[in-house]
Amino acid sequence: MGSVSKKFRGVTRARGSVPGENRDRERAFLVGLDVRSRGHGAKGTVTAQAAAARDAVVQSLSDEGPTLSQKARKDGAPAAGVAPKANGKPVIPEFDAEESLAELRTLAESAGARVVGEVLQRRDRIDPATLIGAGKLEEITGAAASVNADVLLFDHDLSPSQQRNIEKVVHRRVIDRTQLILDIFARHARTREGQLQVELAQLRYLLPRLTGRGVEMSQLGGGIGTRGPGETQLETDRRKIYRRVRHVEQQLENVRRIRAQQRRRRESAPVATVALVGYTNAGKSTLFNALTRAGVLSSPKMFATLDPTIRGVDLPSKRKVLLSDTVGFIRNLPHTLVSAFRATLEEVQRASLILHVSDASSRLSAEQDAQVEIVLKELEAESKPRLRVMNKVDLLDEEVAESLMADASHADSTHKGKTLYVSAIEGTGLDGLLERIDAMIEEDPVSRVHLRVPQKEGKTLALLEARARIHSRAYRDGAVDLEVDAPESVVRRVREWVVG
Fold it and tell me: Are the C-beta atoms of 436 and 420 separated by less than 8 Å?
């Protein structure tokens, strides 16, 4: 690495020398891009949508969350995940180029690669031919060769022509951000449904990137070697892919129909569905396991959860709800993935309550929330009742975590707050979370009733013991007088013993 420019940070220093590391993993060289001009490139393409989402998060921070911007760590810095205020409004820190490249590094490691080098290119505008410019591309070619990289990973979406132009120079495989995310999804999909959804997204990504075998193969007439079959190999490949896309879409439509039937059966009973959403690696699966004891895979790797999982949870009122774990969102989530996973994400659209899980320890939690807001808007689920759950408070300074939870608890007691602070891995704050979910669920409402049940009605008494909260119990004249809070579905079954 001594011959590599200082602009290429020596990521090889420790990663190549970890004892027991799998030497068969692909060696990846990362390329980041910082476009200074906001009017160009990817930063300008989603400005209106992102701005609307960020405004929604700013509003929620202003109106709902505990205002703790004045509270500080012991070193005087603002608490992680808490936006400071400017002119009375929270300021949402944005992903900068360094943090974006760090996220790409995490994605690469989740895809099974070993990062051996990285570079960050700063430009005023995107180069239409190679994204980063011919001079910088030559520099990167030498740096990648010096560390024997197998693949170049770009923290940006590449057009088909940009990808081909770069590959001609570097003589290595070139993968952009979208293709990397698709690869991670393909690695983690376990069910047939998940595999179909990933395949559909991959096929849609592949279509504009096909290259043909030359126009001479499409000619039917004149000359030796020019009598082709009537269409190029490119056209043949496209036709095959379109056919496969239709087949996969049909299979996913069958999945959607079966899922709709299952949902109708669930909705015929008064059981609400609560959907977990959030940025990838915010701790959704860990929280899901803590609430349901389901044993779903929870991993620090990005997109560890792809296949939807639904489990029952008993609330303090003895009502049962269904908790749904969903795929994590990410900045610039490929549209093909949102479309392909629509069958899975319908659980979010139909949920009675959305638990928006955020990483309280991240400086960028508000910006990550804005990215989640973008996807929820695309799913037309932004108006759903929502509870914001700040997870990983165990990673915060102890005094800051206690202040956050105390203020949130006070807001909860006054029914004004819509933000709770928990640690799924330590179980902190989960009882309060279940209480708040119980208060926000409208299905099968709970009411207090006075009952006089004959002692011989053992089945009814057992039902009340299991499904109602009993406040008082007295035995007289061969009957049991009970004061209970019971869901409407239980009250209907014991209506004959209601007193008054």
Answer: yes
**Smallest Cα–Cα separation from 433: which of 353, 326, 325?**
353
Beta bridge pairs of residue 127: 131
Asked whether the CA dihedral 167, 170, 175, 176 is positive or negative, the reply is: negative
Model-level pTM greater than 0.90?
no
Rounded distance, CA 378 to CA 465, Å? 44
Return the ∠ at Cα 354 (arms to 352 and 358), rounded to 5°.
170
CB 121 within 8 A of CB 32: yes
Q: Where are the alpha helices (DSSP H) in 281-429?
A: 284-292, 335-340, 342-349, 365-378, 398-413
Q: Which helix (H) or strand (E) is 32 found in, with range?
A: strand 27-35
The CA distance from 140 to 134, in Å, is 10
Neighbour tally for 306: CB within 10 Å: 24
**Residue type at 67?**
T
CB atoms within 10 A of CB 280: 26
**In terms of Cα–Cα distance, which of 302, 309, 40 is closest to 193?**
309
Which class for 235: exposed (0-12), middle (13-18), buried (19 or more C-beta within 10 A)? middle
Helix (H, G, I), strand (E, B) or coil at 58: helix
Mean pLDDT of 87-112: 77
Q: What gap in Å lies between CA 116 and CA 480, rounded to an integer?
A: 73
Phi, psi dihedrals of residue 405, rounded to the nearest 5°: -70, -35
Quick one: CA torsion of 397, 401, 407, 408, rounded to 10 degrees? Answer: 150
Distance CA 177, CA 27 (A): 16
Distance CA 97, CA 475 (A): 71
Give the domains, in start order, of the chain with CATH numbers.
12-45+74-181 (3.40.50.11060), 270-440 (3.40.50.300), 446-497 (no CATH)
Using alpha carbons, list the distances in angstroms from residue 301 to 85, 109, 280, 298, 371: 32, 8, 9, 9, 19
Distances (CA, A) of 307 to 49, 134, 141, 191, 343: 28, 42, 38, 6, 11
- How confident is the model over 44-59, as a mean pLDDT? 51
Amino acid of residue 431: D
For 476-486, give one letter per residue: b (16+ CB within 10 A) or e.
eeebbebebbb
* Helical (H) or strand (E) element with 454: strand 446-454
* pLDDT over threshold 80, residue 177: yes
Where residue 2 falls among pLDDT bands split at 50, 70, 90?
very low
| Spatial separation of the C-alpha atoms in residues 98 and 34, rounded to whole Å | 9
